[in-house]
């Protein structure tokens, strides 16, 4: 197992984590911008107003994206397990 292979596998794992977390991050960003606009328009500056809708929206995004995330993780794990015979040379 060469250092280049380890670096490549690590970078693929980081890309997978970013790719899987992307739907929740996008939902949190969109909800955060919408709430910020609402606060700017109504001049309500309540700090807790930003957290509850974001938590609910991210939780809903996790529930909706869970099958897709599971399928991607299982595929990635299967690929790593299939590489085990070639790694141990």
Throw out a few tags for this protein:
89 residues, mainly alpha, 90% helix
Q: Any chance you could write out the topology, listing elements then pairs?
A:
Elements: H1 3-42, H2 48-87
Calculate Rg over CA atoms. 19 Å
Q: Secondary-structure element order, as H and E?
A: HH
What number of domains?
1
Strand content: under 5%
Question: Low-confidence stretches at least 5 residues in length (pLDDT < 50)?
Answer: none
Q: Distance between termini?
A: 7 Å
Major beta sheet, specifics? none
Q: Which structural class matches the secondary elements?
A: mainly alpha
Task: Work out the helicity level.
Answer: over 70%
Total number of beta strands: 0
What value does the average pLDDT take?
90
Number of helices in the DSSP assignment? 2
Characterise the protein shown here.
- The longest helix is centred in the N-terminal third of the chain and has 40 residues, at 3-42.
- This protein has 89 residues and is mostly helical.
- The mean pLDDT is 90.
- The protein has helices spanning 3-42, 48-87.
- The protein has one domain (3-87).
Summarize the structure.
This protein has helices at 3-42, 48-87. It is mainly α. The protein has one domain.
């Amino acid at each position: 197992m060469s250092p280049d292979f380890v670096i490549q596998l690590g970078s693929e794992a980081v890309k997978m984590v970013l790719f899987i977390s992307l739907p929740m991050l996008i939902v949190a960003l969109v909800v955060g911008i919408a709430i910020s606009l609402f606060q700017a328009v109504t001049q309500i500056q309540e700090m807790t107003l930003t957290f509850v809708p974001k938590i609910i929206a991210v939780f809903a995004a996790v529930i909706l994206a869970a099958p897709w995330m599971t399928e991607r993780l299982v595929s990635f794990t299967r690929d790593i397990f299939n590489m085990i015979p070639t790694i141990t040379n």
